[in-house]
Design goal:
Elements: E1 5-12, H1 18-28, E2 32-34, E3 38-39, E4 54-55, H2 58-66, E5 70-76, E6 79-84, H3 85-92, E7 97-101, H4 104-116, E8 121-130, H5 133-143, H6 148-162, E9 170-174, H7 177-193
Parallel strand pairs: 1-7, 1-8, 2-7, 3-4, 8-9
Antiparallel strand pairs: 3-6, 5-6
Helix pairs in contact: 1-7, 5-6
Length: about 200
């Protein structure tokens, strides 16, 4: 009996390392494809359209919302982020497991959708977060991409997001890159063996 193909949704606080984990999973497991999300935020240094995100204008994103093109979307820090139905469907034809990075609200919406529909995939939601808000603050500062106001806003949001932890399948308490990577591999292997 073949188990369902998987859709891993890595979620959690900003600065938790979920994007790094997603990239490493894709690099080490050719059997996994990435679901590329769409955003209206400007690209960060080194990000490539169609690889890291699909970068969209506010106007085009709004038109896609009207056409019901997104499985889930939300506005975070004045920018829209969304998982288009098309991005999941295109990946479905490849016959691989999928992984995506999504914010906490997006992961909750995906869970509701997958619970309400018959899907060819099994959704696994993994919440990634450092062990404390102090550690998270240090990570956000060292990342060097946000101003002080944005970091404080992200910390306030993180506190609320941590309260939703029981809604997810796994909690990966981020320690360091290697420990986090080992934990994610264990989750992947365990889910692949699930009947």
């Amino acid at each position: 009996m073949k188990s369902k193909d998987l859709l891993f949704a890595l979620t959690g606080t900003s600065g938790s390392g979920k994007t790094t984990l997603c990239i490493r999973l894709l690099k080490n497991f050719p059997s996994i494809a990435r679901v590329i999300t769409t955003t209206t935020r400007p690209p960060r240094h080194g990000e490539i359209n169609g690889v890291d995100y699909y970068f969209s204008t506010q106007e085009d994103f709004s038109k896609s919302i009207e056409k019901n093109a997104y499985l889930e979307y939300s506005k975070v820090y004045n920018h829209y982020y969304g998982v288009s139905k098309k991005s999941i469907e295109q990946s479905n034809s490849v016959g691989k497991d999928l992984v995506l990075c999504v914010d906490v609200h997006g992961a909750q919406t995906l869970k509701q959708h997958f619970n309400a529909t018959q899907s060819a995939r099994r959704l696994i939601c993994i919440f990634v977060s450092p062990s404390s808000l102090t550690e998270l603050e240090n990570r956000l500062i060292s990342r060097g991409t946000d101003d002080v106001w944005t970091i404080q806003k992200r910390l306030q949001t993180a506190e609320k997001e941590l309260a939703t932890l029981p809604q997810f399948d796994y909690y990966l308490r981020s320690q360091d890159k290697e420990s986090d990577w080992q934990a994610l591999q264990h989750i992947y292997f365990a889910e692949k063996m699930r009947i």
